[in-house]
Amino acid sequence: MKGRKLLMIPGPIEFEPEVLRSMSAITTSHVAPNFIEIFGNTLDLMKKVWMAPEGQPFVVSGSGTFAMEMAAANLIESGENALVISTGYFGERFKNILERYGANVTLLKAPIGEIVHLEDIEKELKKKPYKLLTITHVDTSTGILVNPKPIAELAKKYNVLSILDGVCSVAGEEIQQEEWELDIVLTASQKAIGVPPGLALLVASKKAIQTWKSRKTPVSNYYADWANWLPIMKAYQDRKPSYFGTPAVNLIVALESSLKIINSEGIQVRIERHQKLASSFRLAISALGLKILPVNGNIAANTLTAIYYPKGVNGKILLKDISDFDIILAGGLLSEIKGDYFRVGHMGSVSSRDLIATLSALEYALFKSGYKFETGISLKTFQYLII
Ligand code: PMP
Questions:
Q1: What single-letter DSSP state applies at residue 368?
Q2: Closest residue CA from atom 8 of ligand 1
């Protein structure tokens, strides 16, 4: 026994050894010349991954929820309208955050396993002036993938800011922030970006920064306020020392290391790797006779898959048996159906070997449960597809 399990949950994920090693470098001062260079380079590399050459990157200690909070705190003012397009648990979270900042939130909630249709979004945008809308690119609770491009186009048509929660998508799903005119694309370190938890990452468009600058009221969250962070980010971008709150030095060193890996793989190649592994995995799952949560493959995420337990199979026992096989998977998250499904993360450094190991563990546990299927069918399907 090596005592090592494979972490196949939708974040935190398995990290590249090089990234983990870089985290253990001796901690320097946040104003040491070598750290200033690393932080500056990190911000430059983010603009490449986000495809936002004119964007303003922010790296602040916190989790993905803080990145959401930073977007809401800086862009919404009390009494303004916000439209939340929800495909699961994290859409509801954006609603809650926006309401804390005084927004009147309209929630457009898709039925489980589906997306909100563009016509319904447009119909809502016609009803009243919205300040912003939010899209969850991949809702990690459902494994639903939303195409943000046409929604961002609608936002532009109605002069509404667009915010993309890319926590489960940045560096795993296609995003072209500038080309698609998304005003905010935010994420957290622990998912497809490939760095242990602890960093909130966000890139803001010029329009978003302009909107923040012309606020009538001050930002009511001190730690999230761009007035505090923007000069710091700009200083690091200009390779100058500065201080507001001590940055997570070691995590930022690791982030630079991971962004270098992402850029050397090539963002397009990386996205295609995710797409190929995910579509092959979905077909392997369906070869087992299992059903995924999204109603069709076109709206299924490439960073994770949400799968219903087959009828008569005890989910808790299944996940425990899979864990005994040294693969860690995640249970359900969406409250309405929490006990009915499980989730497999496949993002970042994920390889076909990881998914083959996951499928064999799943087959082992399904077999043990008494579920009837052709042994080896998922492995055969997957291996045939990825060659
Ligand atoms: N949005 C999405 C889509 C997420 O998947 C998550 C985390 N699973 C969050 C927001 C919140 O991020 P965190 O847990 O890092 O606060």
A1: H
A2: 140
